[in-house]
Amino acid sequence: MTVAFPPWPLLSAFLLASLVLAASPGPGVMYIVARSLAQGRRVGLVSVAGVALGNLGNALAAALGLAAIFAVSPLAFLMLKYAGAVYLIHLGVKLLRRPRQGALQPVAEPAARVFRAGLFVALLNPKTTLFFTAFLPQFLEPGADPWGQSLALGGLFVALAALTDGAYALAAGWVAPRLRHGPVVGWGRGLGGGVCIGLGAFAALSGSLESFQAPVGPLP
Question: Is the pTM higher than 0.90?
């Protein structure tokens, strides 16, 4: 019979490590916070859902061995990496170019568009697939089905990350209205656009595939 999860001692270690890594602010968290500050709590939570689905796709890709393809084809890695960087910069420029809407209301944006943006931001980050490939095997039970275990643990990690990302979105959404009053009107939009552009530039200029090591920090 296929074992989806490892025994409790190993699973508890996985849960603790996952919670620490998921709660550590990384580019994904910064993107969600930027969206929440610029456009409010609702947009932030929709972004969380999109990022979570993208991360789940990367976990599935890791289970399928897509990271092995990146390892033997640096060009494939670089193409996806730069596509993600360009998309982030594009989102940042769009945020910065939005007109200032009087005083106090965040700019409305269709939920489907926000969800799709979060999905693409997560999917177009090959380092996330590599993260799962390096992280998950440390908690697999020898002799059990690696495919089933990888899927189960990857899905569990994504669920934990969605919870912590949601907490960040709610916190940033609570702060956002205070950035839309008085002398700080527009700071949320400017901060959101600047963070997205900065993340895109960081993604484009960050280390190559050969420099990837087993993760000791937040989810890329």
Answer: no
